[in-house]
Amino acid sequence: MLNGQLKPAYNLQNGVDSEYITWLDVSQRPSDTRTLIPFLKYMKDHLSFRYRDIVTDAGYESEENYLYLYESGQTAFIKPNNYEKSKTRKYRNDIGRMENMTYDGEKDCYICHNGQEVLWKYDKRTKTDTGYIRITSVYRCEECSGCPYKTECIKGNNCRTPMEERRKTWTLYLPQSG
Ligand code: SF4
Predict the structure, then answer these.
(1) Residue 6 DSSP symbol
(2) How far apart are the CA of 154 and the centre of ligand 1, in A?
(3) Minimum CA distance residue for ligand 1 atom 7
(4) Hey, which bits of 28-130 come out as E strands?
(5) How far apart are CA 57 and CA 79, in angstroms?
(6) What mean pLDDT is predicted for residues 3-18?
(7) What's 171's DSSP letter?
(8) What is the per-residue pLDDT for 101?
(9) What are 101-149's pLDDT values in tens digits?
(10) What is the CA radius of gyration of the chain?
(11) Helix 63-71 and helix 36-46: axis angle, to 10°?
(12) Long-range contacts of 74-79 (CB under 8 A, 24+ apart)
């Protein structure tokens, strides 16, 4: 179990096994997400074994962390960032969320509340502060014109484009905390 305590000038992390602290790390990395990999690397270098199951709270969820654990043969038990939110009725009834649409794997598209396809358009690459290259996918629906569910489905009240001209677009990525 990994716990983070954020202080003004440093970030203290501790690893716990059966209620005993087995490793500590102090760094100036401001977010817990970015502490996980260095923490596990230092621990592996100094202990004579490596833990197979890694349990953390939601602050440690990121694609980079999942990939690291997968490649090192460890199992991630990381609470998803949106776990609490995803249990609410508001979240589950939100027709604009991809999680509430049906995915068609053959076409790589989601079927929206209006029965239209929200299709994969392109991938984009971004580099995180740690140098990790993250690939995210952009999906868009081309049939939003005249949709009776549009104001429920398309969010972003500050968007300058008039609602009648807007189309449902989202970027599929795994959030990075902090
Ligand atoms: S706004 Fe577009 S994506 Fe949303 S329900 Fe209507 S047609 Fe589907």
Answers:
(1) E
(2) 8
(3) 144
(4) 53-56, 75-78, 102-104, 109-111, 117-127
(5) 5
(6) 78
(7) E
(8) 96
(9) 999 999 999 999 999 999 999 999 989 888 889 889 999 999 999 999 9
(10) 20
(11) 20
(12) 74/40, 74/50, 77/53, 78/54
Q: What's the DSSP call for residue 88?
A: S
Write down the residue that tokens 């074994």 correspond to: 49
Question: Is residue 142 within 8 Å of residue 169, measured between CB atoms?
Answer: no
What gap in Å lies between CA 80 and CA 174, rounded to an integer?
10
Contact 28, 10 (CB under 8 A): yes
Beta-sheet strand order (sheet of 169-172): 102-104, 109-111, 117-127, 133-141, 169-172
Probe residue for ligand 1, chosen from 101, 112, 161 as the CB with the greatest number of ligand atoms within 8 Å: 112
Nearest residue (CA) to ligand 1, atom 1: 150
**pTM > 0.85:** no
Measured from CB, residues less than 6 Å from any atom of ligand 1 are 112-114, 116, 118, 141, 143-144, 147, 149-150, 153-154, 168
